[in-house]
């Protein structure tokens, strides 16, 4: 048996039994000073003493197992490092402090976990209530939204279309004589000629694994050097150069748009500027008029659009979700990027489709099936609980960011639109658009979905709507349970 220091647990056990150190030492046939050293973690708990404790006090030796402490440490690291309690901390808590807390004051550690769980449950109920009322979370909770929520809602309120930047990018595309699919050379020339910025592909400063360990680009304003990772593909290089040009040539326009949103915090304003610069970059690489005309001509075939404009699948999908110019609208898409764990790292909507903010998304959504079929485009007719039906396109994309042994990133990209727009898409070919039985019933997520008979339901919705009947094997609507009890 390795040296095990379990002093606080032994002290708590002694206090629970109402024993003094002298009384317990007499029972265990050891000296009071030896027992005091064990309780102070100055001496390890030996096998002989542990067996005497088990026999004399009638406790399971597993009470002194390292497993419980290890689990407590892992849970506390998660809560204090990224949970709801972490936002209230003025300084980070080290692993050493967490270990001491778990070993010396485990009851307080468990109390922190319980507090975090109640905070998350309260946040989920607020989110669910806000979703049902159609209100902003901050309006329901009485608290200001997080900075990233402010920025997300800003783009959502504009239907993911920023006309000022789209128009400016299109004018500059023509003024700089750029060509679709070949913009990288023109952007590099513009940076050099007008701004004296030299573009280099250099992996110094990006880490051994490329930009996996650092930013996508590094701009040195003093040396006038824009460093791009050598792992970037041509379309990605063009996007990064366009983003830098956004700050250099469209900075005033970006600031004006951001100022009009009246963000509550400086952090939100900074995030908005980055988002708007990225928007400008996408509009410059994929100019509105040319891109929309090509999309309509090719019936929104994503792969063919990518080849024509020299960009990847994700970039095309992202741009398709922004084509909402009042006098030249494209199909109003909603766009998502998720990982295998169900985390949504990107979501954009040009329409009124609501993504769940509570407890993940629907496992019946074809976006998750895409991981099992990498490289294939999957289609799905999906019916939401409100009766609306959508056409979803999903594909898994992977990014290799380094050499041997470096894990690659995999995401599922989802692009959806209302069923009435489906005939405009090449992906509707062969689908039974008029068959009411063809769509797959899905929801925004179990915690806000009210489908009582879904085979994939994980738990009842937050705030009620379903109950658990002890005589049945699945969730039932509250109303049905009440009627059954009345009968």
From TrEMBL:
One of its GO terms (cellular component) is cytosol. InterPro entries: Cro/C1-type_HTH, HTH_RamB, IrrE_HExxH, Lambda_DNA-bd_dom_sf, ScfR_C, TransReg_Diox_bact_type. The keyword Repressor does not apply. Residues 10-64 form the HTH cro/C1-type domain. GO terms for molecular function: DNA binding; DNA-binding transcription factor activity. SUPFAM superfamilies: lambda repressor-like DNA-binding domains. Pfam families: HTH_3, Peptidase_M78, ScfRs. PANTHER family: HTH-TYPE TRANSCRIPTIONAL REGULATOR, HTH-TYPE TRANSCRIPTIONAL REGULATOR SUTR. Belongs to the short-chain fatty acyl-CoA assimilation regulator (ScfR) family. This is XRE family transcriptional regulator. It comes from Thauera linaloolentis (strain DSM 12138 / JCM 21573 / CCUG 41526 / CIP 105981 / IAM 15112 / NBRC 102519 / 47Lol). The lineage of its organism: Bacteria, Pseudomonadati, Pseudomonadota, Betaproteobacteria, Rhodocyclales.
């Amino acid at each position: 048996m390795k040296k095990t220091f379990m002093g606080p647990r032994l002290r708590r056990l002694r206090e629970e039994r109402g024993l003094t150190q002298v009384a317990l030492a007499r029972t265990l046939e050891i000296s009071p000073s030896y027992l005091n050293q064990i309780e102070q973690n100055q001496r390890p708990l030996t096998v002989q003493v542990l067996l005497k404790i088990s026999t004399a006090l009638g406790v399971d030796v597993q009470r002194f197992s390292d497993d419980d402490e290890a689990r407590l440490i892992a849970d506390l690291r998660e809560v204090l490092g990224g949970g709801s309690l972490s936002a209230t901390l003025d300084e980070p808590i080290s692993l050493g402090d967490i270990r001491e807390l778990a070993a010396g004051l485990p009851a307080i550690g468990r109390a922190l976990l319980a507090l975090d769980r109640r905070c998350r449950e309260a946040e989920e109920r607020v989110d669910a209530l806000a979703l049902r009322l159609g209100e902003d979370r901050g309006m329901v909770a009485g608290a200001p939204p997080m900075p990233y929520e402010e920025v997300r809602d800003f783009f959502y309120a504009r239907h993911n279309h920023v006309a000022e930047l789209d128009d400016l990018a299109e004018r500059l595309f023509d003024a700089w004589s750029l060509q679709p699919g070949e913009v990288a050379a023109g952007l590099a020339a513009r940076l050099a000629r007008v701004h004296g910025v030299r573009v280099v592909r250099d992996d110094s400063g990006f880490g051994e694994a490329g930009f996996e360990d650092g930013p996508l680009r590094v701009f040195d304003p003093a040396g006038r050097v824009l460093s791009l990772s050598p792992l970037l593909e041509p379309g990605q290089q063009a996007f990064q150069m366009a983003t830098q040009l956004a700050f250099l040539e469209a900075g005033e326009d970006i600031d004006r748009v951001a100022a009009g949103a009246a963000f509550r915090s400086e952090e939100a304003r900074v995030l908005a500027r980055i988002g708007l610069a990225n928007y400008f970059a996408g509009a410059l690489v994929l100019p509105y008029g040319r891109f929309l005309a090509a999309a309509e001509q090719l019936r929104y075939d994503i792969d063919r659009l990518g080849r024509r404009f020299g960009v990847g699948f994700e970039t095309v999908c992202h741009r398709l979700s922004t084509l909402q110019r009042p006098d030249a609208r494209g199909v109003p898409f909603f766009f998502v990027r998720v990982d295998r764990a169900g985390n949504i790292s990107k979501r954009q909507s040009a329409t009124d489709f609501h993504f769940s903010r509570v407890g993940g998304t629907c496992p019946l959504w074809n976006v998750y099936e895409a991981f099992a079929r990498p490289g294939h485009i999957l289609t799905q007719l999906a019916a939401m609980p409100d009766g609306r039906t959508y056409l979803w396109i999903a594909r898994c994309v992977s990014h290799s960011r380094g050499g041997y042994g470096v894990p690659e990133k995999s995401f599922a990209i989802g692009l959806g639109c209302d069923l009435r727009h489906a005939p405009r898409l090449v992906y509707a070919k062969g689908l039974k658009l008029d068959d009411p039985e063809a769509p797959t019933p899905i929801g925004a997520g179990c915690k806000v979905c009210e489908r009582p008979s879904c085979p994939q339901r994980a738990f009842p919705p937050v705030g009620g709507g379903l109950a658990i009947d002890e005589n049945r094997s699945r969730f039932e609507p509250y109303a049905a349970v009440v009627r059954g009890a009345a009968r």
